Amino acid sequence: MELIDQKTKKIMEECKVRARAAGLQICGETLEYIVTNRDLLELSPKVMIPTLYDFWVDDVEVIGNKWIYEAYPHNPYETVINTRPAISFYNDNNPDWLNVMIFYHVLGHIDFFQNNVAFKKTWDDDFCGQALADKRLLNRIREEMGAEKRWVDYVVEFARSLDNLVGYYEEHEETDRGAIHGILGTFSEKVNFYFGEFLRKHYDEKDVGLKFYHDEMERYNLSLGQFGQKLGEASFFDDYKFRSKFPEFNSVFKKHQEKKEKTKKPKDILQFLMENSTFINREENKWMKDVLQIVRRTSLFFQPQIRTKICNEGWASLWHERLFMADERINGHEVGFARVNSGVLLEPKLGLNPYITGMHLFGFIEELAEKGKLSYGYQLLKNMEQRKRFDLNLGKEAGKNALFEARGNLDDSLLVNFLSDDDFQDFVNKYNLFIAGTRLNREKEVVEIYIKSRNGKEYRKMLNNILYHPPYYKLENKEGELRFNHIFEGRALVTKYIPAVLRGFAYLWDGKVTLETTEFEMEPIGNLAQLLMLQDTTWQPEYKKSRVLYACENKNISRTVLDEGSK
C-alpha cells in the first residue's frame, strides 16, 4: 500500500476543482492510496480502516477471502472511508482513465460524508486516529492479562453480538438538544438552572423577591446584547455583585449536574451494561468497560454508513456519471466507460442495486423541483393528464437546490419515503420498475419469472422491507434479573443466534437474562408445498405466531411459549 504518485495526485486535484464548481463541498485535504489485491483482502474485514483493533474473527475472514479469491478473482475498483482527512484506496490494476471516473465517484462519497446530517457526529473527529488509540489500548490490556488474554477477545465477541443495538438516534438527540439553544435562542442549562430551580428556592425562602428576578433578567439581556451569546453568559455569571450575593452558586450547579448525570437513562444496551453491571464494575473487571466502550464507539461510527447505503452510493454514482461524461479525458475511452458504468449501474430485474436506485431517486427529485412539482398545489392534483402537463419551469437552479437539500437531510428510509404515493408511482412508471415473482409453467416444465406488480405502493413496501432496521427493545432490571423485551415490528429475530447472544449477554451481566420475542412456527416446506407455491402464486403455507420467552441462567438456555397465538 502506497500513496499515489504526484502525476495521479494532480489529476485528483483537477477533479476536485471540477467537482466543487458543480456544487460539491469537499473540505480539507484527502489521502489516496494504491493497494494490491492482497491489501484489499486484508483490509476488508476491518471495513477498510487500517488502524482498527485486531480481532481473531477478522483473521479467519482474511483466510476465507483468500480462498474465495483464488476460485473467483475479484476486488472493488475503490473504497473510501469517512476519516479526517478522507482516505480512499484504488486497485493497482485500474487504468489511468478509470481512476479519473473513480475519483469523481469518491468525491461524491466525500461530499456526502461531510454534508449529510446522518454523519454529523463524525465531523469533528478523526476516526483513524481514534481507532489506532483503541487498538493500542486493547493490545495493552492483552499484555496485562498475560495468559488470560483470550478473555479480551471473548468480551469483544460478546459486545459485538449486541453492537447493532447502539443508541444511534439517542446520540443525535443529545447533540441536537445542545445545538438547539443557539439556533432558537433558548437558555443554556446553567441559565435555566439559575432562573428556575435556584432562584425559585431562594424566592420560597424569602431571600429574593419578584423585582430581583426581573432585574436579573434585564441584566442577563444587557450582557447578551453587549457581549453576544457565549461571552454574554460568562460575563453575567462573573459579575462581582452576583458572586458576592450567591458565592455557593457554582458548587450547587455542579451538584445539580452530577445528580442529573446519575439519573440519566443509558442510551443503549452496551452503555446500560457499563453503568449497571456489578460484574463489569468490579475492580478486577473494569478493563471490560474499555472494551465495551471501544466496540460501542466503533459501531456508532459505522451506523450512518449502514443507514445511508442507497443514498451514499446513489449520490456518488450520480456525480461520477455527470462529471466524467463532461470531462474531456473520457475521449477515446467511451466504450470502456460504458462497459464499467453499466456494470456499476446495472438495473437488476431481481433484487436491488443501491447504486442505480439511489441515483434514480435523486435524479427524480431534481426533476420534480425543476418543474415545481414539489409544491403543495401540485400535490393536490389527482388528474393524471394535469399532473403530466404541470410545469412551472423553475429551472436548473431550483432542481440543484432541491438535490443538495436532499443530499444533506435524507437517509435511506427518508429518501425511499420522501415522495408522495402518486409521485412514487410516477417514479416506478418512469424507470419501468416492477416486483418479480416465480411460477411453474407446466407445458414447458420450467419455472418462470414474471412481473408480479408494477404498483408503486408495493414497490416502496419492498424497498422498506430490505432497509436496515435493528430490533426495537425495552430493558427492565428486576431484582438482578435483566429482562429484554423485543417489541415485534413485523420482523422476527434470527432464532439460531439467540442462544449464543444470550450466553454472552448473561456473562457480561453476571446473572439471569431473559428475552421475550415473537416467533413463527411453520411446518417444513416439502417438495409438494414448493410445487403448490409455484402453481398458485397466491398460496401461502400455514404458520403459527407465538410469543416466546428465552432465559439464560448459569449458561443454560431454556425456551418457554407464553402465547401460542393462532394460525
Instruction: Give unreliable regions as ranges.
Output: none
- Integer-rounded radius of gyration: 29 Å
Number of strands: 11
Q: In the residues, how many domains can be counted?
A: 5
Which strand order spans the largest sheet, edge to edge or round the barrel?
7-8-9-10-11
Quick recap:
This protein has 567 residues and is an alpha+beta fold.
Could you characterize the architecture of this molecule?
- The protein has helices at 6-21, 37-43, 56-71, 96-115, 127-145, 150-160, 168-184, 189-204, 210-227, 229-238, 240-245, 249-263, 269-276, 287-306, 309-325, 334-344, 354-370, 376-379, 384-389, 396-409, 412-416, 421-430, 456-466, 498-509, 527-535; strands at residues 2-3, 30-35, 78-81, 86-91, 435-441, 446-453, 472-478, 481-487, 513-522, 543-553, 556-563.
- It is globular.
- It has a 5-stranded mixed beta sheet.
- The protein folds into 5 domains: 2-116 and 308-340, no CATH class; 130-167 and 267-305; 172-263, no CATH class; 346-436, no CATH class; 472-563, no CATH class.
- With 567 residues, the chain is an alpha+beta fold.
- The mean pLDDT is 88.
- It starts with a strand and ends with a strand.
- A hairpin with a 2-residue loop joins strand 7 and strand 8.
- Helices cover 56% and strands 13% of the residues.
